[in-house]
Backbone:
């Protein structure tokens, strides 16, 4: 019975790794969350599927973090740029 639970956790971790990579391009914060959860599930085993899941989750976490940082930088830049374009009286 314990072996079936490990198989299930490995499959969940693998699927979360794939989901985190795909969602990194759509919603980076979701990639971080699913990647971290999948990574935590994949740490429990050292079998082949678990090792693949770890790699996928790490890639998803890195992609999510980088794309989230880029999204925040673009949002800050465009926000500051639009504030500079306003013609405020007295400035």
Residues:
């Amino acid at each position: 019975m314990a072996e079936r639970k490990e198989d299930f956790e490995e499959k969940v971790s693998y699927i979360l790794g794939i989901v985190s990579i795909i969602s990194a391009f759509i919603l980076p914060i979701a990639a971080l969350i699913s990647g971290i959860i999948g990574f935590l599930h994949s740490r429990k085993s050292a079998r082949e599927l678990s090792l693949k899941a770890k790699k996928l989750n790490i890639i998803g976490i890195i992609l999510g973090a980088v794309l989230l940082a880029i999204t925040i930088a673009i949002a800050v830049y465009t926000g500051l740029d639009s504030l500079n374009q306003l013609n405020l009286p007295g400035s």
The chain has one domain: 2-85. The first helix runs from residue 2 to 24. The chain is about 85% helix and 0% strand. Residues 2-85 form one domain.
